[in-house]
Design goal:
This protein is α+β, with helices and mostly antiparallel strands. It is about 20% helix and about 40% strand.
């Protein structure tokens, strides 16, 4: 009498099920890995961080380099955000924020579309014009360079955007103005030269 093979069939089915599940997991992991690499590699920015010091009214200039790391043509749009002390990103739009305390508003950089062919890199000039009424302290901003023809489209691609962080330390402008507070001879009568005098200078700046 032949014994039933139900147990063997069940074990084989369970084994194939585990194999199928493992293959699905591996495929999903590979897909996510390459998707993340693609998203992270679309646009590179050099330098990625700019550290500067300035006084109120001072103008700083320089340039950065953008590179298209993808295999397709990209239209890149720059979006500027102020960074709060807690790390919150606040969009620096034309009608937003206190312009006397907003690095994002002091920054001038191309807000139009920047076209880059695959592998192409381009220098982008920037200017920081510190507000006349800026108070001493640290100011921070971040600029995203994302694929898109306008801000709305670019914001959907921030995961693959190039990122530039700007740290600006504004220090107080010390004004010095000296005047002679007291000047006169050391004594009223000199028998022999040279005569000695006393001068006292005061800073009234």
């Amino acid at each position: 009498m032949t014994k039933p093979k139900k147990n063997n069939n069940s074990r084989n089915f369970a084994w194939y099920l585990r194999l199928f599940a493992s293959i699905i997991i591996i495929i999903a992991a590979v897909f996510l890995f390459y998707r993340q690499r693609t998203l992270a590699a679309d646009i590179s920015v050099f330098p990625a961080v700019i550290n500067k010091k300035a006084k109120p009214r001072e103008i700083l200039t320089g340039d950065i380099t953008l590179k298209n790391e993808s295999q397709r043509k990209l239209d890149i749009y720059a979006s500027v955000y102020n960074l709060s002390e807690t790390g919150e990103e606040i969009y620096a739009g034309p009608q937003t924020g206190d312009k006397t305390a907003s690095l994002g508003h002091w920054l001038e950089i191309s807000r139009g579309v920047i076209a880059l062919a695959p592998g192409e890199q381009k220098k982008i000039p920037y200017k920081i014009e510190v507000n006349l009424w800026a108070k001493p302290g640290a100011y921070n901003a971040v600029v995203y360079f994302a694929s898109g023809s306008n801000r709305e489209r670019a914001e959907k691609n921030l995961a693959s955007a190039g990122r530039l962080v700007i740290n600006l330390d504004v220090f107080e402008e010390i004004k010095e103005r000296l005047q002679i507070k007291k000047f006169g001879p050391e004594k009223t009568f000199f028998e022999n030269p040279p005569a000695a005098f006393i001068a006292e200078i005061e800073n009234i700046g």
